[in-house]
Amino acid sequence: MNENRKSGSSTSEEQGRPMLSMSRPALSLVKPRRSRRSRPLRLFGVVRSVFRTLPIFTPKCKPCRLTPTHLRPSDVSRNLSSSRVTGTLFGYRKGRVSLSIQESPRCLPTLIVELAMQTQVLLRDMSAGMVRLALECEKRPGNVKDRSSSLKLLHEPLWTMFSNGKKNGYGLRRDPNEEDLSIMELLRAVSMGAGVLPSKSDSDGPDSEIAYVRATFEHVIGSRDSETFYMLSPEGNNGPELTIFFVRI
Fold this sequence. Notes:
The protein has about 250 residues and is α+β, with helices and mostly antiparallel strands. It has helices at about 1-15, 45-50, 65, 75-80, 120-130, 180-185, and strands spanning about 40, 80-90, 95-100, 110-120, 130-135, 160-165, 165-175, 195, 210-225, 225-230, 240-249. Strands 2-3-4-7-6-5-11-10-9 form a nine-stranded mixed beta barrel.
């Protein structure tokens, strides 16, 4: 009898659990292809990419420090390379928004950064127009010539974050957790779009919903200390503009 009661209690609890808190099934997401190389930008795309990789800062944010040094005219065509990736911004409406970068919607994330901004604030700013996020970190002390032992830019653990020129706080790079992987699995068939994922229960209200924005990003690598993700809108669609800069100074 006790075993039956325990079994019945367990069954009712499982039926009442939210979708995202269930035990994660076997993932169908695959590992990204490490051998994939960035393609060099063609001449007609160089100028466009240069302007896209220029952050917009107010004088308070010391733009001379945050402007990528690789944008000298003589170095532009030689250094810039780009590729297309899938970027997802997601989070609880009153919680911090996270950025996930994937090679494609069917791949495991290669980068997860928790940003110093509430999800609802970012969505509001994006609906109002152009958003520029800059994440800055400092170079580590050591032998500059020994580049093989230096940390890759997107592997840096902590970032100072600026939104449209205003300092917001700190961004944190982290490994994907169970909830991150569950969200990426639910969005596996989505190449671009925006929406919400189910809340924990009907009584929790809209603040418990996970909002997301997914799009294709152009990943522009200017140097080992400067990379940019520019959100691409569908052809003929004047959607919100979002650019995310990673800079090591």
